[in-house]
Design brief:
flat; 4 helices; 5% strand; mainly alpha; 117 residues; 2 strands
Length: 117
């Protein structure tokens, strides 16, 4: 599996690689802080601060096309979409409670659309 993910085969090798990455990133951060006018700085209390990013300029034609496209799409309530997907895929059969309990006899889609007893 390690070869498929291009990772070191042993934990010790992986830990050494993480340490090398950490050292490299820390060096880059120190260089940015030393410049003083980069994307990061330290405030008066010594906390790391990120400077605001410049806003992306969107071509007006792109914005117009996006609005026209969105106007043609139907607005589907999220709950209805989830219920319909569950009817087809039955994904809710795989859901379990955080405590490990299995779902009750009622299906999720029925429970989502009905009122509690």
């Amino acid at each position: 599996m390690a070869e498929l993910c291009d990772l070191p085969a042993t934990f010790a090798e992986r830990l050494a690689a993480i340490g090398a990455d950490y050292t490299r990133y820390l060096g880059e951060l120190e260089r940015l802080l030393a410049e003083g006018d980069g994307p990061v700085r330290l405030d008066d209390a010594g906390r790391l601060q990120l400077r605001p990013l410049a806003a992306e300029v969107v071509d007006p034609e792109v914005r117009t096309t996006k609005e026209a496209l969105l106007a043609r799409l139907p607005m589907v309530p999220l709950a209805e979409a989830i219920i319909e997907v569950d009817r087809v895929t039955r994904f809710s059969d795989r859901l379990t409670h955080a405590g490990g309990e299995l779902p009750g006899p009622r299906s999720w889609s029925t429970a989502a659309t009905s009122t509690p007893p």
